[in-house]
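Progress note, project year one: complex with adenosine-5'-diphosphate.
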Amino acid sequence: MPSTMTETDTTFAHYPAEARAAAIYHCGVPADWAPISDRGGVSVWRVNGIAGPVALKVAERRAAPAGVVAREAAVLQRLQDPGYLLDVGAGDGAPWVLTRWWEGHSTWEALEPVRAGGGSRPLARVRLVEACLALSDLHKRGWVHGDVQPHHIIYTRVHGTRLIDFSWACTSGLEAPDTYLGGITHLTSPELAGEVEREERTSPAAPSPADDVYALAASFWWALTGDWPLDYHRAGHDEDKLSPSDVCRIIASQGLNLKEDRVWPELQELLGEVLMLSADKRPDAWTLAIEIRQLPV
Ligand SMILES: Nc1ncnc2c1ncn2[C@@H]1O[C@H](COP(=O)(O)OP(=O)(O)O)[C@@H](O)[C@H]1O
Ligand SMILES: [Mg+2]
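Model obtained:
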């Protein structure tokens, strides 16, 4: 469990007062503030009170993190994900987003027992299908997530399967910014990795639904095996020494094989096929749901 702090802790001194007030307004007092993550100038807190938990994401007053959180605020205002967005603001140049906290396991957590060599494969299969359907639903609404990873898919008991972290989500009229470099590099499709690394690029690299599906299949592989799907070592690379830019260039070259470890051979064979197909032949998220549903367990 994350540690909790009181609302008067000095840690919050530099946060916009309006963000703290909004969190308390929505979750009630007394509130427990649990720090969840603090990366790249963006911190996430789980704030819990009698009205239930909320997620507060706050940017430092620096251009890059402020831009990312301001963009997520703009996305969520337009996305209209039912029950998710509670409030946004940009007090004193520090943008913040307040959302409902989705209570439940992520795909990473849901696959942990199978990754450890046990668990229920029928249940794991249901979870993977649900993740595909959640992404399919987003795509059918005309959106691309742009940062699909196993920690961004949450299975709730009451609100179904929900996606989070919409910092890079795109739709018509809300295209990717020129700061977009894909999501986690090892989950990036070859065509998107190539776009990110292209030197003479005149427009921002833009994620597509097919890129999301690639990232979803790679996410499943990662959550299932604890390892990235592509075998950098067999192609002569030292995985630990590769920079994100190296990884993108290598993925874009499409010369890599899949890693050989098999935790669930039938599932990994299917995921491997998806990862090796060109974007135009890759199944959409709905088709991938059906294909996973038909796998033996
Ligand atoms: N609304 C939410 N419901 C449940 N968990 C959340 C929520 N928002 C954030 N989290 C948790 O906090 C982590 C970081 O949040 P995220 O939005 O991914 O921030 P970052 O932009 O730093 O990646 C997530 O991986 C998840 O574990
Ligand atoms: Mg994230």
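Residues 61 and 94 are 5 Å apart (CA to CA).
The pocket of magnesium ion (ligand 2) is lined by residues 152, 165 (CB under 6 Å).
No further modelling is planned for this target in the current period.
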